[in-house]
Design brief:
β2 and β3 form a beta hairpin. The protein contains 2 helices and 4 strands. With 157 residues, the chain is mainly beta.
């Protein structure tokens, strides 16, 4: 999912100073021994590039729920406010492409409902939850929707 693409080409030199190694990411660097129990390695926060530096929120190269910009995807439902909607969020191959897939059942009986997937844009929200995206001119996202377009509504924020 590309984020806030600058006018022209987005990219530049990548700094691997704080990266763990070339075998991490989706190809599967694993921690061996009793401590890792076969779990995927997690990079240090300093090894990630903020989305406002790289121009990308997530290119799906990290193990789910991590984004390539060092934040995590999360699913949220109206249950946090007493609602009855439900959903799941997973990374899977969908129609031949790797994707973050949100499947949901929104219940409107309690005066409305919602299900969403979200991630922080700030690399370290404990320092600041704000990001400066003034160097960008918009958002680019690929979305695939299955449902009743006459009655269902969704938005991107």
């Amino acid at each position: 999912m590309a984020f806030l693409r600058k006018i022209g080409r987005v990219g530049g030199d990548t700094d691997f100073t704080n990266a763990l190694g070339v075998d991490e990411g989706q190809s599967g660097g694993k921690i061996a021994g009793k401590w890792g129990k076969g779990q995927a390695m997690k990079k240090a926060l300093a090894a990630y590039r903020a989305c406002t530096d790289s121009g990308i929120i997530d290119d799906l190269t990290e193990d789910f729920p991590m984004t390539c910009s060092g934040t995590e995807w999360a699913g949220v439902t109206d249950r946090v406010m007493g609602g009855d909607s439900s959903g799941t969020l997973a990374r899977e191959v969908y129609h031949g492409r790797l994707a973050n897939v949100l499947r949901a059942h929104v219940r409107l009986e309690n005066g409305g409902g919602f299900v969403q997937m979200a991630t922080d844009l700030a690399l370290d929200p404990s320092v600041s939850s704000l990001v400066n995206a003034s160097n960008f001119d918009g958002i680019e996202a690929e979305l695939f929707y299955v449902g009743d377009t006459e009655t269902d509504n969704f938005n991107v924020q």
